[in-house]
Amino acid sequence: MFRDLLSRLFNEDALPRPLASPDAEVAIAALLVRVARSDDHYRQVERQRIDQILARRRGLSLEEAAERRAAAEMIEAEAPDTVRFTRQVKDRIALEDRTGVIGAMWETAYADSRRGADEETLIRLVAGLLGIPDKDSAMIRRKVLRDLGMDGS
User: Fold this and answer.
1) What structural domains does the chain harbor?
2) Which of 45, 133, 143, 144 has the greatest CB tally within 10 Å of its CB?
């Protein structure tokens, strides 16, 4: 089902078109996997958090979400550099969904209860590429921390 997603994303001959919902979710999940892998430690707790995020975003069962994450892991491994990949995703997802993507990335980064410099750098890069200002990304991060009960209160 998702085997040729990369070819649809990177077809240089075609104009960027919005992705069908399942493809968009897998592309977004690939960004989440990239964040989780950015510190060279891709833990089970991170995989489970990605599954929870995917299930929550689209009303999937955890099994369906795990299948999408598995497809996203393969796509992430084959995807080009983050800049090129993110630009292709940006051209194919709705503007209003981009802040949700950044929130999901912060949530993934905190899955292991800590934020690494590599994860933060990657999220800042992706936020900028998606057109989300640093100030907005920081507000999203603070909201995620509150929602996760990690804001110190």
Assistant:
1) 5-10+18-147 (1.10.3680.10)
2) 144
Query: What distance in Å separates the CA atoms of residue 76 and residue 147, rounded to the nearest whole number?
Result: 27
Q: What is the chain's percent helix, strand, coil content, to nearest 5?
A: 70, 0, 30
Tell whether pTM > 0.90: no
Cα gap 152→26, rounded to integer Å: 33
DSSP string, 74-127: HHHHHS--HHHHHHHHHTTS-HHHHHHHHHHHHHHHTTTS---HHHHHHHHHHH
Count the neighbouring beta carbons within 10 Å of the beta carbon of residue 97: 13
Which residue positions in the chain have pLDDT lower than 50? 1
Burial string for 107-123 (b: 16+ CB within 10 Å, else e) reads bbbbbbeebeeebbebb
| Rounded alpha-carbon distances, angstroms, from residue 69 to 16, 23, 83, 115, 127 | 23, 12, 21, 21, 21
Q: Looking up tokens 């991170």, which residue turns up?
A: 46
